Amino acid sequence: MHATLPLLKHSDFPVIHRMPLATLQVNLGYRCNQTCLHCHVNAGPNRKEVMTDATLAAVVHYLDTGPARTLDLTGGAPELHPRFRQLVTAACRNGIHVIDRCNLTVLREPDQEDTMAFLADNQVEIVASLPCYLKDNVDAQRGDGTFETSIGVLRELNALGYGREQTGLQLTLVYNPQGATLPPPQQALEQDYRTHLADEYGVYFNRLLTITNMPIQRFGSTLVSHGQFKNYMNLLRDNYSEETLDNVMCRSLVSIDWRGYVYDCDFNQMLGLHARHADKTKLHISDLPGIELDGNEIMVADHCYGCTAGQGSSCGGALTDTS
Predict the structure, then answer these.
(1) Closest CA to 315 of 9, 36, 41, 16
(2) What is the pLDDT of residues 242-266, one digit of tens each?
(3) Which range (23-37, 39-53, 132-146) has the least confidence?
(4) pLDDT digits (tens, 9 = 90+) for 200-230
(5) Under a CB-based contact definition with an 8 Å cutoff, are residues 263 and 255 in contact?
(6) Which residues fall within 8 angstroms of residue 132, CB to CB, at 6 or more apart?
(7) What mean pLDDT is predicted for residues 151-174?
(8) Which of 85, 91, 169, 252 has the fewest C-beta atoms under 10 angstroms from its C-beta?
């Protein structure tokens, strides 16, 4: 695995500051049932990192006392954490909107048989990775059989009410490019997904997010191995859009890693770039109660051009509308 932080650290990316906190994004651990090429977490079946009960308790305490009204759960596959349901239940009890970033196939794993019903009962938004609407492309990126399994799970979610109007059960799909390219315009691609999935498979969803592949971890290492890193960074820089800066996720979100440490975004977490406050350079979730993050300077490096190229990209998809 090639480390990309030394290639990203010295950056001319503009200074940006935090706005009021809206979303607490929590990475429950790096264990996953898949090993995807584009994964910026380097997750997989053999990863052992998992959030402890003590750290989970600190997360729940901050949800009880802090300003965030959305809990965004990531991994790995967050559903594989043994306390996943307890955390979701605690958040929902406090009226917090919960997002589950799901790879779909995990819902076919042993002991996950009733997870879909649990998510529906708790009105959890599912943000599901489906990097293309074509079988061959998905299987090439995520492994043979992934597409067929994903379609089967999406049909079951539709049967529960996900992706249907007036049910309140939000089903969001996520597209990633196959390689070192920018995503196409989100609005047009969403229509292509909607038409193809409905006509070919009877699958429905609420919206599509396009997310740029970040030059870090597994994908970044692959770029280095293939001699494409510099060209990809030039692509991101050449397509920089200042218009996206107002909406980048790091301005209203904090990312918590499996140990409880605080980062300005999920990508900074993977690079080890800790969020800072005053003279404290390594915040923990247990430090956050009573701390005002609004106005803090955000840690940036060259990978931030990935969130600001073209339409922009973040955990919430495109940041500008080019329709």
Answers:
(1) 41
(2) 999 999 999 999 999 999 999 999 9
(3) 39-53
(4) 999 999 999 999 999 998 889 889 999 999 9
(5) yes
(6) 138, 141, 175, 178
(7) 96
(8) 85
- 229 close to 4: Cβ distance less than 8 angstroms: yes
pLDDT for 40: 59
89's CB contacts (< 8 A; 6+ apart) are 122
Residues 6 or more apart in contact with residue 11 via CB below 8 angstroms:
300, 301, 302, 304
DSSP structural state of residue 178? S
Q: Which residue has the tokens 């009962």?
A: 121
Task: Give the Cα separation of 210 and 32 in Å (integer).
Answer: 22
Q: Closest by alpha carbon to 70, among 118, 20, 30?
A: 20
Question: Two tokens at 99?
Answer: 């997002």
Label residue 283 exposed, middle or buried (CB < 10 Å: 0-12, 13-18, 19+). buried
- Give 96: exposed, middle or buried? Use CB within 10 Å, 0-12, 13-18, 19+: middle
Q: Which tens digits make up the pLDDT trace of 89-116?
A: 999 999 999 999 999 999 999 999 999 9
The tokens for 231 are 């060209």
What is this structure's pTM? 0.93
Tokens of 63: 């949800």
Question: Could you tell me which of 314, 313, 305, 320 has the C-alpha nearest to residue 8?
Answer: 305
Torsion angle (degrees, nearest 10) of CA 96, 30, 174, 274: 70
The single-letter code of the amino acid at 263 is Y
Size of the chain in residues? 323
**The 125-129 sheet, strands edge to edge:** 207-210, 171-175, 125-129, 97-102, 70-74, 23-27, 253-256, 262-263
